Amino acid sequence: MTSSAWAMLTVTWTVVIFFTARFFIKVLRTPIRPERERQMRDGILEKDA
Amino acid sequence: MSTRENWGTRVGLVLAMAGNAVGLGNFLRFPAQAAQNGGGAFLIPYFISFVLMGIPLLWVEWAIGRHGGQYGHHSTPGSLDRLGSYWWLKYVGIFGLFTNLTVAAYYCYIESWTLSYVWHSLAGTFQRVDPTTYFPEYLGVTEGSLFAVPVEALFWFVVTLALNTWILSRGIARGIEVAAKIGMPLLLLFAAILAIRGLTLGVGEDPGVVQSPLEGLNFIWQPQLAGLTNPTTWLAAAGQIFFTMSVGMGTIHCYSAYLSKDQDIALNGASAGWMNEFVEVILGGSLLIPIATAYLGLQAVQAATAGGSGFALGFLTLPSLFSNWGAFAPAAGALWFGLLFFAGVTSSLAMGQPIMAFLIDEFRFDRRHAAVLFGLTIFALGFVCVWLYPGGAFDEFDFWTGTFGLVVFALAESFIFAFVFGMDRGWAEITRGADIAVPEIFRFVIKYITPVFILIIFVGSLIKPAGDWSAAASSFAEGTGWPLAPDSVIGRVLHTGIDDYRWLTDEGRGTPYLIQDLTRVFLLLVFVGCGWLIYKAWELKARRSS
Lengths: 49, 546
Fold this sequence. Notes:
heterodimer; A: 49 residues; mainly alpha; 2 helices; disordered C terminus; B: 546 residues; Amino acid/polyamine transporter I; 25 helices; 72% helix
């Protein structure tokens, strides 16, 4: 492989792995907010029921 | 009765969303597109398109979906209806039904090829039979008739469809989420094993290897900077981002609709989007072309990917190349087609759920009956693709629904989100409950840049020229006309490039053009049928509320 191809591959892989790992780790570490069933039901009652 | 389902875990949701985006194109289309459009330089417009169109459109679709879900709607007719007070908004949602039905029909067929090939790889079929002769026979292309039914292909299609229907009938948490949690890690594992083995093949060390696989990697990554000034490269890159994200289908809206009002969509959307990029750029770019280059040489690989697709390499060439791997050959074939199968099934499940949700939400179906009806409908639609594959029905489905339909819907929803729902409400929807800070610049990008990006892809698909865009522009400026490509939308409608266009041969037999035109009429009827279902659903809703 040429040095420019290696450079392109290295930069791209680094960026992709960095953002994929960063966001996925944040997903794993952040707990889900509690569901608000009441608001959903209110929404249904308002227009669709 | 309509009952609200939920995702079991956040990881399950992100994996299911990533699985929706990760498809066969990540492994078969991306490397060929990159190699044919400037190599490493292709990645520059590719990532610009990802940031300015891919990620913003993901957030728009997540936001529309979660917003609609608060009102009990999990499919696009209801989600879009909730974005404004115009009566026609729900009818824009036709695309979210039509596209999923028709794409699922032919996509399940492709998925069935991969499942069948897993079986045949393990059974050693490709060590006895040449895949280049086997595959056309499997599809019924060599039957001598445009109307012969390929029995084995039909059998695997039914098996695949039954599996999809069964998973869908189990619901979001117990069906789709479990499938994603099994399928996605296995896909990554299979791809990693093949990539390590493929990239370490050596000339003189491994039987049959004629060139270093790194030459194939070089073919993909060597930056040809001249490509950056070519509009063809930019359109190819934007198109690849558009299709790899699975936007413009209604699947993201559906999955997101099972979130509650304050649950995050910004981080979830970004995570799923980047996970798709990981699979596409890193794994997809390290498999097909390097392995094929090792055994066939770079010149043959360049010729095989000239059309910007790696389907021929993936299904015709790779199975026979694996036979060089000795005792590992059956397992290698099973790993390759297994990863393609997992990529396919996580996407086809995402296409099924919006249809199920529409039946459950609007017609009060229970989940099992909705799954059965979905399975039967996809069988009926898919049978057209299986049966009339040699005549071109499959390609018509792919072009009008899996390519053009997505762009039309994405264009419509991006304008509706920014200008009907309004950017103030839209931005509040995207950022509410966000677990990451969404940069303010995306407010401007979503309102102006993303719709323009999609508009350019739309116009590009309408008038795609035969050959280079620059050459076509010169031809137009010189007054010699615009050379339309046969695979442009207008070119398809006008049957450009076909000299002997007729429906019947001199012996009175149907031609492929007859089948293609009948398929278009059929698809139009399906589209109108989806519109009629939406009309009936809202009529029923009005009756229930009065």
